[in-house]
Amino acid sequence: MTAADKPEVWQPSPIEQQRAAYRLRQRRRSFVVATVSTIVVLAVVVIVLVTSPGWDRFQSTFFSPHEAGVAFPMVLRGLWTNIEVMLVCGVAIAVWSLVLAVLRTLRGPVFFPLRAFAVVYVDLFRGLPLLLVVFLLGLGVPALQLSGLPTDPLFWGGLALTLSYSANVAEVLRAGIESVHPSQRAAARSLGLSYAATLRFVVLPQAVRRVMPALMNDLISLEKDSALLAAIGVVDALRQAQIRQSLSFNFTAYVVAGVLFICLTIPMARFTDWYARRRGFQGVGGQL
Amino acid sequence: MNVLSLRGIRKSFGAHVVLRDVSLEVAEGECVVLIGASGSGKSTLLRCVNLLEVVDDGVVELDGQDITDPRVNADEVRSRMGMVFQSYNLFPHLSVLQNITLAPVRVHKVARAEATEWARAALERVGLADKANARPDDLSGGQQQRVAIARAMVNSPRLLLLDEVTSALDPELVGEVLDLLQGLREDGMTMILNTHEMGFARSVADEVCFLSDGVILERGPAQQVLGAPQEERTQRFLSRLLH
């Protein structure tokens, strides 16, 4: 070991230098090919768009700079609502879906009612279209005029998102919990950890890490789907765009909203990729 | 001509130089056994031959062709050798038979019926003809490793690379795998293997190579290297194994 650890001067042999030079040439060539093909494809798309007969009309209706300037502050104000919904619902979903997932993985006949509840709940809310749940809660419940219940559509819309999303996220978490090898539970129990402590300190940390990319994916979806609340009158980015469009008869506000949504989701998507790649390094259990 | 020839192989992971300067010739039908402490680079050497690792320097020639040239098709080169891993690495979602026919059908483009015939012959050879439809998880470790050997040799490779194939096995299962390898050796299969089973090394090896500090420190016939090692470090390694 000692000699191998010593810093030493290593000169690549001529054949290795040739190989390195060849690899470098190949890399450069790939880069040039990728760059040129990207530019060509983009150029073709732009030319087809700009030379199309309806281009001027299209441009002024969807990409009017003046309209964009007017719509931007409005839509941005609305977008803040989307972000709030995403953050609050994200936390609520995390808690509720974890409860559902744990209920569903409980063993033993004593827990049958809890397991059954979790199964029925997940079946129900995974099967219902999200927009339908938003309508039912956002328009239906306030129509009952029950005293003591909030009437704010933001509350009911947020609740609808939470209930629906929790069903999906619970299934993701359950998949993660069940992917942890039984030997891990055995090892934890052999140390004297209770069922709950095993779950909390051994199983869940591994399970959540394993499904993190899928969970991030759901968070990005949630951010987009918060725009569904526009359908029950919550003034979010989409609703603001609608309001502006109904005044100006110009669709640029929608484009502005779309761009803002993408600006929010892209950093989250890149973060997810980065996280998954970093995990992948340790997750692939190979040896050298 | 030599089936395999290594010249000046160097491989490092970050700052850690695993192989510094390894040269080795393996003739047709020869069985070379690599020994050495954990981390001495035995597995890395086999992985370099299989192109699972890219060497930092040096040349690997298979049947006279330089396979470390970046222009060669690594998949094609690998299809001419077989490799068996310490932890079997069978595909758990496929049956035993499907594990063996995967490469003939997908890589060598053999008709499925013919590939199945080959696979059955290979299973016969490793003594598991009755397990064709079993799942890997239903087999013992020794049986799984024999399936892995059948999978590696079904395409009649020029060279078989065996990476600590008995290390993960229970002691009473080691024998069945070693018997099989002994048989392959007698059939004239060219093999490079690394192992901790010195008794086995003694009985199958045409040449034993002791790896230490990234070089082959001592090499020669089994009786010589294992029985009367010249180098002090070889002596120390072997005496530690005995006690």
UniProtKB/TrEMBL annotation, chain B:
Q: Which residue numbers delimit the ABC transporter domain? A: 4-238
What are the record's GO terms for cellular component? Answer: plasma membrane
InterPro entries in the record? AAA+_ATPase, ABC_ATPase_HisP-typ, ABC_transporter-like_ATP-bd, ABC_transporter-like_CS, MetN_ABC_transporter-like, P-loop_NTPase
The main location class comes to: membrane
What does the record say about its membrane topology?
Answer: Peripheral membrane protein
Q: PANTHER family from the entry? A: AMINO ACID IMPORT ATP-BINDING PROTEIN, GLUTAMATE_ASPARTATE IMPORT ATP-BINDING PROTEIN GLTL
Q: What is this protein called?
A: Amino acid ABC transporter ATP-binding protein
Lineage of the native species?
Bacteria, Bacillati, Actinomycetota, Actinomycetes, Micrococcales
